[in-house]
């Protein structure tokens, strides 16, 4: 039976919880972790880059000079890509980079990421993540008490003080358990759950 200590915000052990082996003994499948991260990053792309073709740049359609007899190279338009201020050939146009991967692959990738952090002993379960005020210094104090340097903190979005206090820290990030993803788990060294967020995630796996 896999077990994980439950600690307080001060880092003191306050019990333990049994972990489901189907999740935390899941094999580390690097390929699906890679595929899931690439998919996540692709879906974040805005795809708004755009350039003008020769049909879109401003300028006359008149032929600059006659075809023969001038001694110069033949030219048909001042909007040619060969000319300064001419159009762009094969430049980017607005597009949607989103694509979907199977739900089961996403689920297995999340199990792999959770199992990885557990085996690295970089998974923490805190009974309650409570900050009196939404201040960055309080968030820093919390990380210091838990003895972590870089951490993804998972709780419910209703914990407003925690989310506001964490948003200015480059070495930490607070996310709602419903938006937990593989990319964020792998980006930070430690994974920290509140008790209620952990229970919510486990129930999601059971459904």
Describe it for me?
- The chain has 2 domains: 2-45 and 97-206, Ribosomal Protein L4, Chain: A, CATH 3.40.1370; 47-96, no CATH class.
- Helix content is 35%, strand content 15%.
- It contains 7 helices and 6 strands.
- It has a 6-stranded mixed sheet with strand order 2-1-3-6-4-5.
- α2 (30-44) packs across α3 and α4 packs across α5.
- The chain is elongated, with a radius of gyration of 27 Å.
- The protein starts with a strand and ends with a helix.
Supply the key terms.
207 residues; alpha/beta; Ribosomal Protein L4, Chain: A; 2 domains; 7 helices; 35% helix
In short:
This protein is an alpha/beta fold and 207 residues long. It has 2 domains: 2-45 and 97-206, Ribosomal Protein L4, Chain: A (3-Layer(aba) Sandwich); 47-96, no CATH class.
Secondary-structure map:
Layout (H helix, E strand, L loop, with lengths): L1 E6 L5 E7 L1 H4 L5 H15 L58 H17 L3 E4 L9 H11 L4 E5 L4 H7 L5 E5 L5 H6 L2 E5 H12 L1
Helix pairs in contact: 2-3, 4-5
